[in-house]
């Protein structure tokens, strides 16, 4: 959500998001590119076997430790 609502971030997190997404006009594209790359790396390391990717099962307090996770808005 930090990429979707950057205005809700504190200044330090906003700068970090700006640095991470430098060169991307669409931050959603940055997210999908990084996600696809990460999944592809995992799958490539296991190929040709089938790979099942488990989505996040973080608890609410664990999200708070991520960039932008402390935002209350």
Folded structure, characterized:
This protein has 73 residues and is mainly α. The radius of gyration is 15 Å and the shape is flat. The N and C termini lie close together (11 Å).
What is this entry, summarized?
With 73 residues, the protein is an all-alpha fold.
The computed structural class is mainly alpha
Q: What portion of residues is helical? A: 40-55%
Q: CA-to-CA gap between the ends?
A: 11 Å
Count of helix runs: 3
- Largest sheet, strands/sense/barrel: none
Average per-residue pLDDT, rounded, comes to 86
| Low-pLDDT segments | none
Radius of gyration: 15 Å
- Shape descriptor: flat
Number of strands: 0
Sheet-strand content, in percent, reads under 5%
N-to-C SSE string, H for helix and E for strand: HHH
Give the SSE map:
Layout: H1 11-20, H2 27-46, H3 60-63
List keywords for this structure.
single chain, flat, 73 residues, mainly alpha, 0% strand
């Amino acid at each position: 959500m930090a990429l979707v609502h950057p205005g809700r971030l504190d200044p330090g997190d906003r700068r970090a998001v700006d640095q991470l997404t430098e060169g991307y006009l669409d931050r959603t594209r940055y997210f999908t590119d990084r996600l696809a790359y990460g999944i592809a790396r995992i799958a490539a390391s296991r190929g040709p076997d089938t790979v099942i990717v488990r989505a996040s099962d973080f608890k609410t307090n664990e999200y708070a430790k991520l960039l932008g996770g402390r935002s209350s808005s």
